[in-house]
Design a protein that fits this description.
The protein is of the alpha+beta class and 750 residues long. It contains 20 helices and 30 strands. It has 3 domains: 174 residues, 2-Layer Sandwich (Aldehyde Oxidoreductase, domain 4), CATH 3.30.365.10; 156 residues, 2-Layer Sandwich (Aldehyde Oxidoreductase, domain 4), CATH 3.30.365.10; 325 residues, Aldehyde Oxidoreductase, domain 4 (2-Layer Sandwich). The strands form 8 sheets. A 7-stranded mixed β-sheet has the order 12-13-10-20-17-18-19. It has a 5-stranded mixed β-sheet with strand order 15-23-22-21-16, sandwiched between helices. Strand 28 and strand 29 form a beta hairpin. The longest helix has 23 residues. The chain starts with a strand and ends in a 15-residue tail after the last helix. About 7% of the residues have low confidence. This is Isoquinoline 1-oxidoreductase. It comes from Pseudomonas chlororaphis.
Length: 750
């Protein structure tokens, strides 16, 4: 479905599924008369809005005019600092702001906010949608935003009714004067409230949680209807006047350059072709239809040139093999930098009577998101640039576009459509993003260009989930309890991979899931051997935890077996002074009907076993129990029980959905997913050779949310990391085979 973007379309009739053009002209001509304009540039030239933004304090999230617009029909338009990609952030933000504004989230129209300092609301000073940060790090700020807007409406109501503010209260969507029985809808107060200043943030009082109407409730997703009926728009759906479509063919290995095009004239003569273009490491075809562009670009015969010594990208060697790389990592012995070093690990390992050694490694993974990469670029007659681009960090992308084009930031409008899948794919990856190509092509032809990478090009240029080989050593005391543990990981983290080098400080994404464990093991050393590889790396759902928790929690079970301990009891023992994690572990056992490791015979006659694992990513604690059997030599996961403690929650329905989704992806990477590279090229260029978990292999998922009241943690990523080790530990209990590498499809079980 293509939807044409009409710059004259009025904002007053826009809905969530309609593309938003935040240009000056749109807002000046399209804002509903009488609306309480609490929105960025709505209208952009209004003196009041500009003054409010300029006069706002440095305190984050206090620039109310940057976020909200209350319309005469009582609909509330919220410009959200975060991107929506299926994780439910738009709905959660409507609940949080609506709670303090006293407006039903169902009345909200939520859109992605444009780039701008006003939208930096995270407590860490960043503006990204990732790391499961959106809700947990903006929760108090966004609540206060709603409270400030409510205070403005109360003040407007007091003026219009001629009564003191102290006599007024609110009910959803209206200001109420109980003494006289009068009330005013928020929309009726818009014009008067428009002229009021934003109150002092310290003057507003937030609602007591016992009075919450919407926070903590399973509020219906705001985007569910449009997505389920095909009305939701993604970047690939958008269309502007006079637009050309583009398709690309990338070099088979990153770093190679375009040489001779042997059949360029024939390709130019193909149906619908507008032009053929050479790009860094790629060729492109522009056409009136994307299918014509795709067929033509695939027909181009390119003499690719080998990378030169001064290549600006990380060149992929012609002999690179992912399997050989795993072996190299496992054999790399240093030097190592310590992240944790407590006690005297070396001495205890030397003196112990019971020592356990093991080496683990993981596999490369693609992101495999449903929506292939795309970008739309248009240079306007005044020389300004508009770009439509799915992204997780709009300010970073706009800054990069400015750097590439030489344009001032004020001349660049970045639109952030819905994302057709997250998983870390839409961060700033120099060689794995289509927008530089779209911008270059639009500039070359003087017409708007929409570029879509085919699935094959996406698999070729996608950044990969990092790999690591971890050498473990551990010592047990005379009673079989862990006395010391050492984990040395040969790896390159995604953050240092993007930088191209290791920094002075260790990349926390390289070791998270190995470091920071809460188990009471007095002597421990966690270290990294930095090994820069040829593959381009990126962030993947739950980042380092997605691999490191598999390593650590599986090895912990090895220690339990060696010491003659039940792995569940071992964890209880090591967490005996940690009430929160003990409660969580007991909760998942209760959820599963009581811990039993097995093997045991199920009601259907199959032989089964269970495994347990824990993880602590992004401020949230999780505990997982998996039940497995073996069918035709492969693992079948019947049930996953997960207890999750994010401190407190906003929407339990979204939490449960996120747990189910994370478990599905966790099982997929555990059982079948892997990106295999041979001779410097990916084996898979589509899903035919990159298997993902089929519905028939999906486990039943059981969720228990434990609200400990601790500081709020994340939701989108934390449910994933403990899945793989729980399954691996169950397999070991059932078969006696210890799985030290993934995916399990590489192993045969009996």
């Amino acid at each position: 479905m293509n939807v044409r973007i009409d710059p004259s379309q009025q904002a007053s009739v826009l809905d969530l599924h309609e593309p938003i053009n935040v240009s000056r002209r749109r807002f000046l001509t399209g804002t509903a008369v009488g609306a309480l304009v609490l929105g960025f540039g709505l209208p952009l030239g209004a003196t009041r809005v500009q003054a409010a933004v300029a006069a706002a304090t440095a305190e984050r999230g206090t620039q109310v005019p940057a976020f909200l617009e209350i319309r005469p029909d009582n609909r509330v338009r919220l410009l959200c600092p975060f991107m929506e990609g299926g994780q439910g952030t738009f709905t959660a933000m409507a609940q949080i702001v609506g709670e303090e504004l006293d407006a039903d989230p169902a009345t909200f129209l939520v859109e992605a906010a444009p780039p701008g300092e006003a939208y930096v609301v995270l407590e860490n000073g960043m503006r990204i949608t990732g790391g499961s940060m959106s809700v947990r790090m903006s929760y108090p700020v966004m609540r206060r935003l709603g409270a400030l807007a409510r205070a403005m409406l109360l003040q407007a109501g007091a003026q219009q009714l001629g009564v003191p503010v102290s006599e007024l209260s609110t009910e959803p969507g209206k200001v109420v004067h109980a003494k006289s029985g009068r009330s005013l809808a928020y929309g009726e107060l818009a014009e008067r409230a428009m002229d009021l200043p934003v109150p002092d943030p310290a003057s507003v009082k937030l609602r007591d949680p016992s009075q919450f109407r919407w926070i903590g409730k399973p509020v219906k997703r705001l985007d569910a209807y449009d997505k389920s009926t095909g009305k939701a728009l993604y970047s690939i759906d958008l269309k502007v006047d006079d637009m050309l479509h583009a398709a690309v063919q990338h070099a088979p290995r990153l770093g190679m350059t375009v040489g001779n095009l042997r059949n360029e004239d024939q390709v130019k003569a193909m149906k619908g072709v507008h032009s053929v273009h050479r790009l860094p490491g790629a060729v492109a075809v522009l056409a009136e239809r994307w299918w014509h562009a795709k067929r033509a670009v695939e027909a181009i015969q390119v003499d690719w040139q080998e990378p030169t010594a001064d290549s600006k990208v990380r060149p992929m060697p012609a002999d690179f093999s992912s399997d050989a790389w795993f072996k190299r990592l496992a054999e790399d012995k240093g030097p190592a930098k310590d992240d944790e070093n407590q006690g005297d690990v070396a001495a205890i390992l030397k003196e112990t009577k019971t020592r356990i050694d093991a080496t683990y490694h993981n596999q490369y993974l693609n992101h495999g998101q449903l929506e292939p990469p795309s970008a739309l670029a248009r240079f306007n007659p005044d020389g300004s640039l508009e770009v439509w681009l799915p992204n997780q960090a709009p300010d970073m992308f706009r800054a990069d576009i400015a750097k590439r084009t030489g344009l001032d930031l004020s001349r660049i409008t970045l639109h952030s459509p819905l994302l057709g899948g997250f998983f870390g794919r839409h961060f700033l990856y120099d060689s794995a993003s289509p927008y530089p190509q779209a911008i270059a092509l639009a500039k070359a032809v003087g017409r708007p260009v929409k570029l879509i990478w085919s699935r094959e090009e996406e698999f070729l240029r996608d950044v990969l989930r990092p790999v690591a080989a971890v050498n473990f050593r551990a010592a047990l005391d005379n009673d079989g309890w862990p006395l010391a543990i050492e984990a040395i990981s040969a790896t390159e983290g995604p953050t240092e991979a993007l930088a191209g080098k290791q920094g002075e400080k260790l990349d926390p994404t390289a070791l998270e899931g190995l470091s920071g464990k809460s188990y009471a093991i007095a002597n421990k050393r966690i270290a990294q051997i930095y090994v820069k590889g040829p593959a381009m790396l990126g962030y993947w759902r739950s980042v380092g935890n997605s691999l490191n928790d598999f390593f650590y929690e599986s090895f912990l079970d090895e220690l339990a077996d060696k010491g003659g301990k039940d792995p569940f009891d071992l964890r209880l023992h090591l967490l005996r002074d940690n009430k929160r994690l003990t409660t969580l572990l007991q909760a998942v056992a209760e959820l599963s009907g009581g811990w039993k490791r097995g093997p045991f015979t199920a009601e259907d006659g199959s032989k089964r076993a269970r495994g347990v694992a824990m993880a602590s990513p992004f401020g949230t604690e999780t505990a997982v129990i998996a039940e497995v059997s073996i069918e035709n030599g492969q693992v079948k996961v019947h049930d996953i029980w997960q207890a999750i403690d994010p401190g407190s929650i906003v929407n339990p329905a979204i939490v449960e959905a996120q747990v189910n989704g994370a478990v599905a992806l966790g099982l997929s990477q555990t059982l079948v997913e892997e990106a295999v590279w041979i001779d410097g090229k990916p084996r898979a260029r589509n899903y035919d050779l990159y298997p993902i978990l089929p519905p028939a292999r999906m486990a039943r998922v059981h969720v228990r949310v434990v609200e400990s009241g601790e500081k709020m943690g994340g939701i989108g990523e934390p449910p994933l990391p403990a899945v793989a080790p729980a399954v691996a530990n169950a397999v070991a209990a059932l078969t006696g085979q210890r799985v030290r590498s993934l995916p399990m499809s590489r192993h045969t079980f009996t």
